[in-house]
Write a structure and sequence with these properties.
The chain is about 40% helix and about 20% strand. The protein is of the alpha/beta class. Among the domains are: about 140 residues, 3-Layer(aba) Sandwich (Rossmann fold), CATH 3.40.50; about 120 residues, GMP Synthetase, Chain A, domain 3 (2-Layer Sandwich). A hairpin with a 7-residue loop joins strand 8 and strand 9. The chain is globular and about 65 Å long. It starts with a helix and ends with a helix. The relative contact order is 0.10.
């Protein structure tokens, strides 16, 4: 059944008003979360090991709880997988979220009965916030597509194991369930290319109004759909009005999406992670609203200090605008002092809004320049706009030992529309990099590096690379920055 616009808008307004309580009192919300986490943490093996019973304030917490990565908590996860209780959080997790790691291989992130509702609530709130501030209800009145990983769960151990997008597929909100696609049978398909073909088949003649997913995989869906129907997406789905996404910076994809869709469609950015739902776009201004009353106590380490080995962390009340931070999570699923690897920057503190600026492990600094994700995203967006080009994807890596001449940064770019002059595009791109990274600029001016070199990637080159390493589709994302040539050398071989 369709709900009248009046009811949908009233419900959205109610939820938005309710959320204003913590949005307008952010530090109180974080303090309450902190106290609740410590209270529950005292009952656990991890809490007893780190003397949670002695923690009375944040300074005590910092003294007792170390900054950790997955490898550090892996022994505790092993105990959980054996069925032991009260290890990181009281009781047992209701799921273990399976995610790809680098040094640690496959990771298993706990999701508790307390944390699971917030994964769903934040996604729901993002859509309801959009409805409340725009008045647009059409996005929830037609069909919805969530392009995600398989909802199949592994029950071979004491706790069900699955991918985050697959787990959340079991919790689609009631107002989106009616016309939600793809079907369970299609969603269970693990062959990503075949799965996209099946989604196209199931949706090509439907009335889709809301589409959600990670941009590169939604792009693949749009390309296959438009090729089959020989129309743009807005002609196929005239009521398509909202795109919900997360996982990667959308700017490099926007021009390609506009071409495929045929018009500019409203979008809502979200910041979900296996460890917790962190933020969502709540207005037209830059940045994502940080979710502060949702079972996560946040800490931050300045990136500049972190890179020097200084891991002194701060709570929310001490953050500064326009400073890159390594984000640290403490969650109601039992993650303590956990470094997820992302870097963020605050664009506002009233309310607290963040930009995701990159990955602490994804950078280029072979020559001491420390180029980060936000810098390459900004530079290529400006170069694309200035040269009327369009790109599909890119990757940057250092070339330390070229066959001749000075070392350089090599940019692998898959163009959707080539610039009129690639040489001018490269010059612009290099200039934009110099303008925002003084270390890189000094290396260029000091003849330590020569200007960047562009290597054009053939159509579907990045897709073929991801396929070759078994990471095509789902939540898998191509690193846009690397401090080595592990990806770069493989791209040359494609």
């Amino acid at each position: 059944m369709f709900f009248p616009d009046l009811i949908i808008r009233a419900y959205a307004k109610y939820i938005n008003k309710k959320n204003k309580l913590w949005i307008n009192n952010p530090l109180d919300a974080q303090q309450k979360t902190f106290e609740l986490l410590i209270k529950n943490g005292r009952k656990t093996v991890y809490g007893k090991k780190h003397q949670f019973e002695k923690i009375q304030n944040y300074n005590d917490f910092k003294s007792s709880v170390p900054i950790v990565e997955y490898e550090d908590i892996k022994p505790f996860i092993s105990l959980i997988r054996r069925g032991e209780k009260n290890i990181l959080w009281p009781g047992n997790p209701i799921y273990l979220c399976k995610t790809s790691g680098t040094t640690s291989g496959t990771k298993f992130i706990p999701i508790s009965k307390e944390s699971m509702p917030f994964h769903i609530k934040c996604a729901k709130d993002a859509i309801l916030n959009y409805i409340d501030r725009t008045g647009n209800t059409s996005s929830v009145k037609g069909g919805t597509i969530f392009i995600q990983g398989s909802p199949k769960l592994d029950f071979s151990e004491s706790i069900p194991i699955g991918r985050l997008s697959g787990i959340t597929a079991h919790y689609v909100p009631w107002y989106l369930k009616r016309n939600n696609l793809p079907s369970k049978k299609t969603n269970l398909n693990n062959d990503w290319e075949k799965k996209i073909d099946l989604i196209v088949k199931e949706t090509k003649n439907k009335n889709m109004s809301l589409i959600s997913g990670i941009p590169p995989w939604v792009q693949m869906y749009f390309e296959k759909l438009t090729k089959l129907k020989k129309k743009n997406v807005s002609e196929i789905f005239p009521n398509f009005s909202l795109f919900v996404y997360g996982g990667v910076n959308f700017k490099p994809y926007k021009e390609v999406f506009n071409r495929l869709i045929g018009k500019d469609v409203d979008s809502v950015e979200t910041y979900p992670s296996s460890e917790g739902f962190i933020g969502y776009q709540d207005c037209e201004k830059e940045g994502l609203l940080l979710c502060l009353d949702h079972g996560i106590f946040y800490e931050f380490i300045e990136v500049s200090k972190y890179l020097k080995g200084d891991f002194d962390r701060i709570s929310l009340k001490n953050v500064k605008i326009n400073t890159d931070y390594v984000i640290i999570l403490n969650t109601n699923a039992g993650l303590w002092g956990y470094k997820i690897g992302d870097t963020v920057s605050f664009v506002s503190t009233k309310p607290y809004r963040i930009l995701v600026t990159g990955r602490i492990k994804h950078f280029t600094s072979a020559f001491g320049e420390h180029v980060i994700g936000s810098e390459v995203n900004s530079a290529i967006s400006k170069a694309v706009k200035k040269n009327n080009a369009k790109i599909i994807e890119f990757h940057v890596a250092p070339q330390v030992n070229p066959n001749s001449g000075l070392p350089f940064h090599e940019w692998f770019i898959e163009f959707d529309v080539m610039p009129v002059c690639l040489i001018e595009f490269a010059k612009d791109l290099d200039r934009f990099m110099c303008n925002q990274n003084s270390y890189y600029n000094d290396l260029i001016e000091g003849n330590v590096l020569r200007p960047l070199v562009i290597s054009c990637v053939e159509k579907n080159g990045f897709k073929n690379y991801m396929k070759s390493i078994g990471k095509l589709g789902g939540q898998n994302k191509l690193p846009r920055l690397s401090n080595n040539r592990l990806i770069a050398d493989k791209l040359h071989l494609l």
